[in-house]
Write a structure and sequence with these properties.
By secondary structure, the protein is α/β, with parallel strands linked by helices. It folds into 2 domains: 2-122 and 249-317, Bordetella uptake gene, domain 1 (D-Maltodextrin-Binding Protein, domain 2, 3-Layer(aba) Sandwich); 124-222, D-Maltodextrin-Binding Protein, domain 2. The protein is built from 11 helices and 10 strands. It has helices at residues 2-24, 42-58, 73-80, 95-102, 138-146, 162-174, 186-195, 205-214, 261-275, 278-285, 296-317, and strands spanning 31-35, 62-66, 88-93, 114-130, 152-157, 178-183, 200-204, 217-222, 248-256, 290-291. Strands 1, 2, 3, 4, 5, 6, 7, 8, 9 and 10 form a 10-stranded mixed beta sheet that branches. Strand 5, helix 6 (162-174) and strand 6 (178-183) form a beta-alpha-beta unit. The longest helix is centred in the first third of the chain and has 23 residues, at 2-24.
Length: 322
């Protein structure tokens, strides 16, 4: 009986300490937000917009640090091993789930080693073709490619990337006989399309928005579950007859596992307040992202379901982790 009383008192003491820490957090020092990719990319830009708002909302600087390399896993490894005091966070995209499948030596468990706070934006993957392409929708693209089996290419940013796996999923479901040609950057993917070196590409909408607006590229489908608000006239792949594809791009924040729940909750509330501001929504829209805050549980589920989906695609395509 005495042992139970002591244990209960000890547990209560821990809870009170965590609550006190959350009440003071983040008063001690700036919060580091690590990103596994270079400056200027979608994750980087969207995270910096959020970090600006959080710095103002919580009265402490949120400092974004780029730690590129190994498919984003260098940053993930640093955060997974960091102190769980709320002063180190990880900004991740859907690529976090892809790396869990395509990177051989990931130095962490992509789910268990993190305390998800929330997805804070969503973005759209689109199917783009050159302006002179005979394809006007997904069915005519499939027909065009298969009339020249094995002779046409699709461009993608890196073999084993999110875009590559989504394109492979599309290819598998439609039996399109096209070959993947890998480029280092989204800009090079776009250039290949503009030159006519590729029949199509799957890219984030914001990466090719300028070329779409200028008429140099055309969109024939979105790979999202529903039509995308910024381009409501572009049908989904499902509407075009390709069932089973519905990828919703996302950016989110996570702490190391074991971070006190009151700190997670406090950051989640601050994110909600920041994302509710029209000025923030406008800035995010400018980079093709829609402000949309998930719960921590929804974030965890998204990571798990994406890993499962990409594992199936990689296995069917014969792609191995490197």
């Amino acid at each position: 009986m005495k042992r139970a009383t002591i244990a209960a008192a000890f547990a209560a003491g821990i809870m009170l300490t965590a609550a006190a820490s959350a009440a003071e957090w983040p008063a001690d020092k700036p919060v580091r937000v690590l990103i596994g990719f270079g400056a200027g990319g979608g994750t980087d830009v969207a995270t910096r917009i959020l970090a600006d708002g959080l710095s103002e909302n919580l009265g402490q600087q949120f400092v974004v640090e780029n730690k590129p390399g190994a498919g984003g896993t260098i940053a993930g490894g640093l955060v997974a091993k960091a102190s769980n005091d709320g002063y180190t966070a990880l900004a991740i995209s859907m690529g976090h789930s892809v790396s869990a499948v395509m990177v051989k030596a990931v130095p962490y468990d992509p789910v268990k080693d993190f305390a998800p706070v929330g997805i804070f934006t969503n973005s759209a993957f689109v199917v783009a073709v050159p302006k002179n392409s005979p394809a006007t929708d997904i069915k005519s693209l499939i027909a065009y490619v298969n009339k020249q089996p094995g002779k046409l290419n699709y461009s993608t940013v890196g073999l084993g990337s999110t875009q590559h796996l989504i394109a492979e999923d599309l290819r598998q479901r439609t039996s399109m006989n096209a070959q993947a040609v890998s480029y280092r950057t989204s800009g090079e993917v776009v250039s290949a399309l503009l030159r006519g070196d590729a029949a199509f590409a799957i890219e984030l909408f914001h990466s090719i928005r300028g070329q779409v607006d200028s008429g140099d590229l055309r969109l024939i489908a979105v790979a999202t579950p529903k039509r995308w608000p910024a381009i409501p006239n572009v049908p989904t792949l499902a509407e075009g007859g390709v069932a089973g594809i519905g990828y919703l791009g996302w950016y989110g924040l996570a702490f190391p596992a074991g971070t006190p729940q009151p700190i997670v909750d406090k950051l989640h509330k601050a994110m909600r307040d920041v994302l509710a501001k029209d000025a923030v929504k406008k800035r995010l829209d400018g980079v093709g992202a829609v402000a949309n805050l998930s719960s921590p549980a929804e974030f965890r589920k998204a990571i798990e379901s994406d890993i499962k989906a990409f594992q199936a695609v990689a296995k069917a395509a014969g792609l191995e982790a490197k």
